[in-house]
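Researcher: Here's my situation. A collaborator sent me these components and asked whether they could plausibly form a single complex. I don't have experimental data yet, so a predicted model of the whole assembly would be a useful starting point for our discussion.
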Amino acid sequence: MKKTIYIFNDGQLKRKGNTLYFESEEQKKYLPVEDVGELMVFGEVSLNKKFLEFASQKEIIIHYFSYYGYYMGSFYPREHLNSGHMILKQAEHYLDEEERIRIARQFVSGAARNIRQVLRYYNNRVGGISETLNRVDEVIMSLDDCHDISRLMAAEGNIRDRYYRVFDIITRNPDFPFEERSRRPPRNHLNTLISFGNSLMYTIVLSEIYRTHLDPRIGYLHATNFRRFSLNLDLAEIFKPIIVDRVIFSVLGKKMITVNDFEEEGEGIMMKDRARKTFVQELDAKLKTTIKHKGIGRPVSYRRIIRLELYKLEKHLIGEKFYEPFIAQW
Amino acid sequence: MFVILVYDVNVKRVVKVLKTSRKYLHWVQNSVLEGEISKANFHKLKAELRSIINDEEDSVIIYVFRSLQYSSREIMGIEKGGQDIFL
């Protein structure tokens, strides 16, 4: 599988010798263009049109993040997998209220059931979560009765709210209390980690969508609007608990990131570069981890599972097979 | 699969071989590159190299591994190049 390259240093990206070349004060490095799938840019990097042309030709997506680590946007190269048929089907399922809810419900149910798996694991390990677990189960049962998007969203918010409230029990790290979910800017350390992890997850799903026929602008749970991509937000819901949150628990559990890795910035809390690198490293390793896939019968990486999820959605849209979300088994 | 490519070619063609290999593999040190590569790209790389080198004078050796299990990589002295997902 092609690699994701994370650029934290400041420098210049160039096309040189028909491959990618990164030059900064400390290093000069060639990157094998055929082995790069996407670039995540955190540093101040300059590049020119010639470079973008080359990236486009080689189907490399470039995601960029602001100084504060917030997702800013992507260079989404010219579509290389064109399918008018798929776009029509995607829009058709969006416009038909009934169909849209059916898909959106699968996303919420996938997210909720994966949250449940995480809770169940930690209930066995540290205990004290069974009440939350029961409540989550009740909400999952009630999902079938949600017949409009706003009720579905409310149910999802409800689950997530309860889920976040037991983070303190799970992390058992008094330096990182959850308090409440705050965004833009996140007001405590744990929220900063959650926000950072989630925004990485959105870009990863977006990169995978680029490799399918789906159009990232048409989402089902998240309304399609004038602002940005939304299908990646939908899919990311399913994977956030089992990928991002588990990485958070792991870096906090192993004390790989401590409160000293943060600094205050205006109203919010911001991660220092070292913490970002550590987090990204762990997340990247997680995505490469392989697990035995029930349906396929051989080991596949988490990253591949995201792609398979998109293929399942494609099959649903063309009416081949009803979409059911991926649920972690452990 | 994972490959290690080493070359010893006439100085006239060194740059060409290096540039071609660098599109697919990570430079490790002089005349040595390594990296994960797909079967298709492996064939492309070999085809490109074949059209550059002179069979009478040059030598390119590629070690192919199905996976890196049961292998380890040890470095003595300084690390000159290699693979890194962070820049």
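Model: Some features of this prediction you could bring to your collaborator: Strands of chain B lie at 2-8, 26-29, 32-36, 59-65. Chain B touches chain A at residues 19, 22-27, 35-37, 41, 44, 81, 84-87 (CB under 8 Å).
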